[in-house]
């Protein structure tokens, strides 16, 4: 069974015991900052490992509860799979608890556990009253049917029970999409002495591997994942659902900020105009007006903008979902289905939230026609649904596409004839953009390999595709390689693949010494010294010897007679010609020695090489020309 990764969050009012509960569950104090210790409140997001076995790994985010730190709270819960709503037994539901509940609803968090904390501070009879109060507040929310656990972080009452419950719920959940393109919204940027820039966040989707080339968006900065850590332990890969820190090359701390997104694909969209579906909070304190300033919280980004309606000019009370548009002051990276929160900048309050219908919004006219178009788009056009499905799955046969897109066969086949979609192997569909993306990736890998190994004819195909197979089906990778060969981008010799423009060559700094060595070797004819002597005399290091011998042999400049002796390719070919013209259809060792004037020391390796190359065939004590 594939291991699954989840991140849970602690939410609730200030001083209701979220950080203490996190510490009791994990033995980690997530209040790291001096100000947090002094003021005894969480300012920044805190992280800790909760549980791990062979099947599951669970991380905890402790999010700040104070109203002033709502921005960090939103950044924390945006990537979680389950929420522990912490309510203190001695205070009950408070204003911040209600705002957190609204935020969790808008972000689509469906799984929760209610922890009634600090139970040792109140009488047992009082706990029942608190529980009734909480149940009343939770009616109609995602937490309505959530289990309750009574806990006290100091005495450790209920700690084992809540931990077991969290594990049980998560064991029944599906993991986030680990097959899609990698995406990590950054919530922390810092430097580590001797290592450089490190970013941290929750992997929303996909996987990342050490050494992988990535991009910081929306800035478009290309970086490499130099090192990956999960809870302070080095890892070769990080998966969807994991909290991870990634050490990046080619970028400084000053170039990055919370809200940037680390991605592996060009398929994510950078935009400033987003079509959205929004719900408002039930008890709006102030009216929401047309084009009023809003603060958008999406992923870990916080961006100012304006809300634009197409069927109204204000909202005071609205229970349903409204299709509208957000016009932002800065670019964000997002895709269809992403959840977000809207806040009023002044006076500060959460006014609503929703999901992205289309990250590529246009300017529309005010009126019912636009609303109808947005409603249709909300459902998703067939083409958009096919594209989104193939971006996620990479390639699928027709029957699987029918299932995943919920489109009928006729509608599907009509759209699949468009240029964006490619049928390969006669049965599977993929996207033209994915083919280009893989082709570019292979091109870059080959280019890098040629620069480091200029004497090798190419990369073994299986080795070339090995890491890519973690993200793409092998059938698709094979098709891209064959398609690239057909189009003259790649070439293949036996199992080795290279760029068409590449010609194997000796590295420039060793060219002269190699030429000198070949001159000496040619001068000695067939009566050569040990091959190692020629390399050492020419000043060629042992580390280069194996690759250089292989290269020279491929270029027919060198013929290895056995492990000890080699001769110049030209000398070898002349000797073969001479022997062939001075013997009949067959000959013995003595005949060859007489023609070539060689001792047994050189004669036997030479004749065995003739056999190996297929010039001759040994029959008893004679050799027959083939």
TrEMBL record:
Q: Name one matching Pfam family.
A: GTP_EFTU_D2
Keyword flag Protein biosynthesis: yes
Entry function: Translation factor necessary for the incorporation of selenocysteine into proteins. It probably replaces EF-Tu for the insertion of selenocysteine directed by the UGA codon. SelB binds GTP and GDP.
List the lineage, top down: Bacteria, Bacillati, Bacillota, Bacilli, Bacillales
Q: Where is the Tr-type G domain?
A: 3-174
**GO molecular function list:** translation elongation factor activity
InterPro entries in the record, alphabetically?
Beta-barrel_SelB (IPR057335), EF-Tu_GTPase (IPR050055), EFTu-like_2 (IPR004161), Elong_fac_SelB-wing-hlx_typ-2 (IPR015190), P-loop_NTPase (IPR027417), SelB_WHD4 (IPR015191), Small_GTP-bd (IPR005225), T_Tr_GTP-bd_dom (IPR000795)
Record's subcellular location: Cytoplasm
Q: Which UniProt keywords apply?
A: Cytoplasm, Elongation factor, GTP-binding, Nucleotide-binding, Protein biosynthesis
The protein's name in its UniProt record: Selenocysteine-specific elongation factor
């Amino acid at each position: 069974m594939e291991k699954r990764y989840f991140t849970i969050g602690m939410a609730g009012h200030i001083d209701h015991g979220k950080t203490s509960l996190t510490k009791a569950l994990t033995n980690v104090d997530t209040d790291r900052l001096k100000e947090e210790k002094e003021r005894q409140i969480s300012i920044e997001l805190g992280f800790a490992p909760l549980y791990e076995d062979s099947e599951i790994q669970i991380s905890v985010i402790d999010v700040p509860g104070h109203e002033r730190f709502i921005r960090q709270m939103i950044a924390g819960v945006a990537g979680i799979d389950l929420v522990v709503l912490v309510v203190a037994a001695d205070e009950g539901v408070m204003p911040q608890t209600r705002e957190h509940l609204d935020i969790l609803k808008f972000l689509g968090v469906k799984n929760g556990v209610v922890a009634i904390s600090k139970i040792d501070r109140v009488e047992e009879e009082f706990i029942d009253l608190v529980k009734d109060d909480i149940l009343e507040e939770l009616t109609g929310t995602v937490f309505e049917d959530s289990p309750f656990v009574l806990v006290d972080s100091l005495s450790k009452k209920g700690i084992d029970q809540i931990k077991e419950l969290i594990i049980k719920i998560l064991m029944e959940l599906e993991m986030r999409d680990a097959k899609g393109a990698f995406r990590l919204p950054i919530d922390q940027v810092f430097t580590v002495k001797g290592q450089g820039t490190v970013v941290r966040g929750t992997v929303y989707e996909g996987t990342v591997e050490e050494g992988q080339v990535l991009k910081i968006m929306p800035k478009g900065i290309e970086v490499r994942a130099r090192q990956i850590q999960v809870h302070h332990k080095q890892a070769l890969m990080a998966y969807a659902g994991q909290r991870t820190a990634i050490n990046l090359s080619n970028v400084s701390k000053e170039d990055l900020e919370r809200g940037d997104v680390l991605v592996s694909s060009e398929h994510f969209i950078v935009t400033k105009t987003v079509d959205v579906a929004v719900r408002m909070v039930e008890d709006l304190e102030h009216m929401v007006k047309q084009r009023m300033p809003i603060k958008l919280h999406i992923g870990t980004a916080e961006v100012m903008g304006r809300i634009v309606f197409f069927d109204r000019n204000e909202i005071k009370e609205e229970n349903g979902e409204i299709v509208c548009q957000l016009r932002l002051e800065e670019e964000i990276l997002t895709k269809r289905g992403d959840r977000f929160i809207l806040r009023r900048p002044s006076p500060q309050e959460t006014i609503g939230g929703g999901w992205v219908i289309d990250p590529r919004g246009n300017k529309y006219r005010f009126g019912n026609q636009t609303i109808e178009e947005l409603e249709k788009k909300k459902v998703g056009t067939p083409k958009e649904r096919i594209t989104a499905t193939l971006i996620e799955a990479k390639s699928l046969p027709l029957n699987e596409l029918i299932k995943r897109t919920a489109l009928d066969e006729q509608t599907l086949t009509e759209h699949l004839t468009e240029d964006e979609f490619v049928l390969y192997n006669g049965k599977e569909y993929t996207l033209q953009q994915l083919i280009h993306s893989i082709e570019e990736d292979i091109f870059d890998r080959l280019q890098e390999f040629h620069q480091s190994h200029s004497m090798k004819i190419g990369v073994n195909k299986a080795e070339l595709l090995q890491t890519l197979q973690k993200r793409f089906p092998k059938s698709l990778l094979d098709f891209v390689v064959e398609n690239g060969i057909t189009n003259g981008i790649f070439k293949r010799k036996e199992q080795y693949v290279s760029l068409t423009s590449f010609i194997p060559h000796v590295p420039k700094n060793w060219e002269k010494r190699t030429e000198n060595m070949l001159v000496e070797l040619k001068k000695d004819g067939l009566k050569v010294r040990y091959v190692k002597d020629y390399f050492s005399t020419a000043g060629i290091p042992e580390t280069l010897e194996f690759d250089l011998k292989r290269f020279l042999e491929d270029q027919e400049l060198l013929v290895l007679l056995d492990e000890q002796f080699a001769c110049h390719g030209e000398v070898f070919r002349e000797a073969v010609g001479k022997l062939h013209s001075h013997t009949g259809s067959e000959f013995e060792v003595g005949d060859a020695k007489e023609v070539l004037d060689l001792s047994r020391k050189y004669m036997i390796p030479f004749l065995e090489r003739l056999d190996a190359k297929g010039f001759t065939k040994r029959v008893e004590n004679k050799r027959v020309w083939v």
